[in-house]
Specification:
mainly alpha, globular
Length: 294
C-alpha cells in the first residue's frame, strides 16, 4: 500500500509538472524552461543529498555522467517542446513509448534476451504509436515526431542509468545528473534568452520542484514494490493531464489518441508483468543453486 501511494504521488507530481511546463512555455522559450527546471530541481534536491555525506560525491564515471546528461537534456528539450506545443494528452501519450524503446535498447546495448511474447507487446505498442501519429493523414504534423524522439532518447537514458547504478548509488547518479544538467542547459538557453517576469517565476520553480518530488517518490516506490504492480498506477497521469488540459486549456482528446494510448499502455503493462515474472524466476533459480550447489 505504501509503494502504491508513493507511485500515485509521483504520478500526480509529474502530471502537475507537465501543466507547469505548459504555462511556463507561454512566457519563456523551451530552452529556458529546461534550465530553470534543472536549477530549481538541484536546489530542491541538495539538502537531501548532502545528508548522505561525502560518499555521495565519490565516482569514477564522470565521462559517462556527461554523456548521460547530454542525452537526457536532449530528451528533456524535446519532451518540453512537445508539452508546450502539442495537445497535452497527445504529448503524454507518446511519452509512454519510452518502455517500448527501452526493451529494444536493452537487447542491443545490454545483451538482454527478449522472447516472443515481449516482442509481440513491443510491436503492439508501436502500432499504438502509429495510430496516434497517423503518418500520411491530413491531420499529421511533424511536431508529433519530436515527442517520439523524446521517448527514444529517454530510453537511452534509462539504459545508461542501469549501467551507472551498477557502480554508484542512486543518490550519486541523481546528484551528478543535475550537476551536469544545469551548466549544459544554460548553453542553449542563452541563445533564446528572455528574462522571466511575474508569474513566470512561479511556473518555472514549480517545474523544478514537482519534477524532483516526482523522481524521489518514483524511486522510493520502486524500491518497495514490484514494477508490474506499480506501472499501471503511473498510467493515471494520462487521465489527469487530459482532464486538466480540458479544464485549463480547452483541449479535447481525439479518438485516435484514446485508442493509441490504450494500446501503448496495455503493451507497457504486459512488458512490466513479464519482466517481473522473469526476475522472480531468476531469483528463485539463483536461490535454488545456492542451496544445492552440487
Amino acid at each position: 500500500m505504501r509503494a502504491a501511494l508513493l507511485m500515485l504521488g509521483s504520478t500526480m507530481a509529474f502530471g502537475l509538472m507537465a501543466i507547469a511546463i505548459r504555462y511556463a512555455t507561454a512566457h519563456v522559450p523551451t530552452q529556458e524552461v529546461a534550465l530553470f527546471r534543472n536549477a530549481f530541481g538541484l536546489v530542491a534536491l541538495l539538502p537531501m543529498l548532502l545528508r548522505s555525506g561525502p560518499k555521495v560525491f565519490r565516482t569514477q564515471q564522470l565521462p559517462r555522467y556527461l554523456l548521460r546528461s547530454l542525452i537526457g537534456l536532449a530528451s528533456m528539450l524535446c519532451a518540453f517542446w512537445a508539452i508546450g506545443h502539442l495537445p497535452i494528452s497527445q504529448a503524454i501519450s507518446l511519452s509512454y513509448a519510452t518502455p517500448l524503446f527501452v526493451t529494444i535498447a536493452a537487447v542491443l546495448l545490454l545483451g538482454e534476451v527478449v522472447r516472443v511474447r515481449r516482442w509481440a507487446a513491443v510491436v503492439c505498442g508501436f502500432i499504438g504509436v502509429l495510430i496516434i501519429v497517423r503518418p500520411g493523414a491530413d491531420s499529421f504534423t511533424p511536431g508529433v515526431l519530436v515527442a517520439v524522439l523524446a521517448a527514444l532518447l529517454s530510453s537511452l537514458v534509462a539504459i545508461q542509468i542501469k549501467q551507472l547504478t551498477r557502480v554508484d548509488g542512486a543518490d550519486t547518479v541523481v546528484l551528478y545528473t543535475y550537476v551536469f544538467w544545469v551548466p549544459l542547459s544554460l548553453v542553449p538557453a542563452l541563445f533564446t534568452w528572455v528574462w522571466p517576469t511575474g508569474i513566470a517565476w512561479v511556473w518555472l520553480a514549480a517545474t523544478g520542484i514537482l519534477g524532483t518530488v516526482g523522481q524521489l517518490l518514483w524511486t522510493r516506490a520502486l524500491r518497495l514494490g514490484e514494477v508490474s504492480a506499480l506501472t499501471p498506477i503511473s498510467f493515471t497521469q494520462l487521465p489527469l493531464v487530459t482532464l486538466l488540459g480540458w479544464l485549463l486549456f480547452n483541449e479535447t482528446i481525439d479518438r485516435y489518441t484514446v485508442i493509441g494510448a490504450g494500446i501503448i499502455l496495455g503493451a507497457n503493462a504486459y512488458i512490466a508483468h513479464r519482466e517481473a515474472v522473469l526476475a522472480r524466476r531468476a531469483a528463485s533459480n539463483a536461490a535454488t543453486q545456492a542451496a544445492h550447489p552440487e
